[in-house]
Amino acid sequence: MPTPVQSWTPSSWREHDARQQPTYENEDELQDVLGHLRTLPPLITSWEVENLKAELARAANGERFVLQGGDCAESFADCTADVITSRLKIMLQTSLILTYGLNKRVVRVGRFAGQYAKPRSSDTETQDGTTLPSYRGDIINDPAFTKEARRPDPQRLKRAYMKSGLTLNLVRSLVEGGFADLRHPEYWDLDFMQHSPLADEYHAIVESIEDTLSFLDVVAGRRADSMDRVTFYTSHEALLLPYEEALTRTVPHNQGAYNLGTHFPWIGKRTNQLDGAHVEYMRGIANPLGLKVGPDMTREKLVSLVRHLDPEKEPGRLTLITRFGADEIGERLPPLLHAVQATGHPVLWICDPMHGNTEKTNGGIKTRRFANILGELEQAFDIHKAEDSMLGGVHFELTGENVTECIGGARGLQEADLERAYKSHVDPRLNYEQTLEMAFSVVRKARNGGLDV
After folding, report:
1. Residue 111 assigned to a binding site
2. Which catalytic reaction applies to this protein (predicted)?
3. Rounded Cα distance, 451 and 446, in Å
4. Number of folded domains in the chain?
5. Which of 63, 69, 200, 357 could be 58's S-S partner, Cβ–Cβ 3.0 to 4.6 Å?
6. Residue 307 — very low, low, confident or very high, per pLDDT cuts 50/70/90?
């Protein structure tokens, strides 16, 4: 069983079963890299972490709504201005739509600047009779199917740190520069809406937002700039534990140890063992934590994890990110809600309608159906409302690029369209127009009285 909190150290996870970790050929090289990472400046600050924790506590009380989104797995090659800018653009625009529709401030949490590791269902992959290690994200190896590319390389940890820092630098510059401004229609790529039967309603919402901003400008007697400058937080799955440990630091004037490689780390469903290394590491850091909750989660296990990860019942400390699938959420979510409510822990509930709705086409292409993603999200709102609970956010895998990875949406993408612009090496993402349509659908549900906001 887990040891007391007082005995925790950033390296105490090493005494536990660590799943989803690569095997490095040269342990000395790995230790040299980790030692170098420990000397580098942190990527974020402890006061940013504490600010996010306070915002998440407000979301759990219904005063905020969380938008967590980004790539399923970042790639080093996509650390470019165009890709980062398009990703940030869709996150900002989606958050503004949700702010308008839900009448709440939105907390923006990106799945980037560190989302370079991915869990895999198998340690190996076989193609044409050749078996190689699975691709585990750019922080570990390369997706190319060669022996050298799939070899876990410690030097990639340095590259992940560098790419994360470059991403953060551009994001911080953009959000300070008015990139969220809705007054410029050229920032909005809304051509896809002409294909939707809800086109008129969508355009009416956008025009209403623009009219509201113009009204605020007139009343204030000056331009209302508060919508141009926003706060942005980062998140990633804390999967590669040696890397996470190397970025864990103590800071002056604050108690405890912080993971200063990300504001909001989370535990995935494959590494949520109560006595496992990932839970051991996460229980001791001062960051707010996320915990993925899937259809195999029992009430007893969830209650134990909640109590272990948040022993002090600290507001903003723990976020439960549910991922059941449209067909299972109605059966799986209510009993877990009841079990956690009975503990009295002030958790924040977020719906991830992506991962539980993954499927493969007859041709073997991994995809997700827009209708199922929206269906799970709408059910989540309805279930929380019926159970006197609060759904405080959404978790999307998305991109600002014009990819064709998910079926459906306003353009009615079909299976035959997937190969046209399928870029993801891991999981399918909502593209720009599908993400906006998802946000507008939530607004429509709120305007029609379907959400408890």
Report:
1. yes
2. D-erythrose 4-phosphate + phosphoenolpyruvate + H2O = 7-phospho-2-dehydro-3-deoxy-D-arabino-heptonate + phosphate
3. 5
4. 1
5. 63
6. very high
